[in-house]
Amino acid sequence: MPLTVGQSAPDFQVFDQDKNVVKLADLRGKRVVLLFYPMDFSPTCTTEHCTFGPALGQITTDPNTVIFGVSCDSPFSHAAYRTQFNIPYDLLSDPTRKMVQAYDMYAGLEPFNCSKRGTVVIGSDGKIAKWEEVPMREARSIESIAAAAAV
User: For the chain, what is the domain count?
Assistant: First the structure.
């Protein structure tokens, strides 16, 4: 069931691409934009990240906004992916699928056992400000991410 605006965001504790622990509790007071995506190195995901990275200044200029990519891939895959495509924001690894399930962004075991494509914005108060799922094979636009980050 999708999360609703105003609901407390589910807590999470996962690794980024460098195996640093990232906890939602440590981000209180910041706006957090979670860009859920199915898989590293897949065509649509790569199109998105290669578009969002250079346009990060168009997406948000607020120093209190943090953007993360989130998928079920390993930190090792994230590290290679981030380096190869020069992705400027951290990629969060959820190989246990606990975070993607808590945010209702899990696509299920079949056929790929991966996350859905979607955007979740958590306000500085720790509550859901936006929850949006988009079709897995359709890349999000800079405009849609900028509009979500501004909510």
Answer: 1
